[in-house]
Design a protein that fits this description.
The chain has 209 residues and is of the alpha/beta class. The chain folds into two domains: 152 residues, HAD superfamily/HAD-like (Rossmann fold), CATH 3.40.50.1000; 52 residues, no CATH class. It is 39% helix and 15% strand. It has nine helices and eight strands. The strands form two sheets. Strands 5-4-1-6-7-8 form a six-stranded parallel beta sheet. Strands 2-3 form a two-stranded antiparallel ribbon. Helix 5 links the parallel strand 4 and strand 5. Helix 4 runs parallel beside helix 8. The protein is globular, with a radius of gyration of 17 Å.
């Protein structure tokens, strides 16, 4: 088994961070949910599309340490490493934000992984090898990387990416859908938590260990 995992919104949850950034800018009304999509939709509705674009650069760049890992994702990686299961992080993002300060988004992502203990071999951390992290610039390059790594499974939060032309036919597609917001489809297995993913891929015993 060779498992590939997307980064943004699959490993990293930005919901609380986006709400905090909106609050700091005085753009979050009372009751706005701690949800990235809700913050985006609100800013667009009040004509602040440019603010939303710049805020993404902050969240994925200078402020990324304020984002949290999804519950269970570190346990999943830890168990994969412990059990000798090949696991990789494969994502795509521009090197710099489209608007605002030109943070190095790839360096920021690696810094977050370091900060969260993904590379730390200590027993309660993960010990993922740094060379198993691939940050590509385009979706095409991401698909090509998944194929080159010969992934048997790939986990992503975007159904449209799992339907990309050229996506390896033999790679089993896992849609991470914590809000159960995406309709079922034949091309992927839809799972809502990292506990479910661990149970499906590693077995119930390992998922709960």
């Amino acid at each position: 088994m060779r498992i590939g995992v997307d980064f943004d919104n699959t490993i990293v949850c930005y919901d609380q961070l986006f709400l905090r950034l909106a609050q700091e800018k005085g753009l979050a009304p009372a009751g706005l949910p701690a949800n990235k999509g809700a913050v985006r939709d609100h800013l667009r509705a009040i004509g602040k599309e440019d603010v939303w674009t710049e805020m993404q650069g902050e969240a994925y760049g200078s402020q990324i340490r304020g984002a949290l890992p999804f519950p269970g994702v570190k346990d999943f990686f830890r168990e994969c490493v412990r059990a000798g299961v090949d696991v990789f992080i494969v994502s795509h993002k521009t090197l710099h934000p489209f608007k605002g300060p030109q943070y190095d988004l790839h360096a920021a992502a690696r810094d977050w992984l370091e900060f969260q203990g993904f590379f730390d071999p200590a027993p309660r951390n993960i010990g993922l090898a740094r060379e198993r992290v691939f940050l590509e610039l385009t979706k095409v390059e991401k698909v090509e990387r998944i194929a080159a790594l010969d992934c048997t499974h790939f986990i992503d939060d975007l159904p449209e990416f799992l339907a990309e032309p050229g996506f390896p036919a033999k790679t089993r597609k896992i849609l991470f859908d914590p809000a159960s917001a995406v309709p079922p489809a034949e091309i992927y297995t839809r799972l809502k938590s990292w506990e479910q993913i661990a149970s499906a891929l590693l077995g119930p015993a390992r998922a709960s260990s």
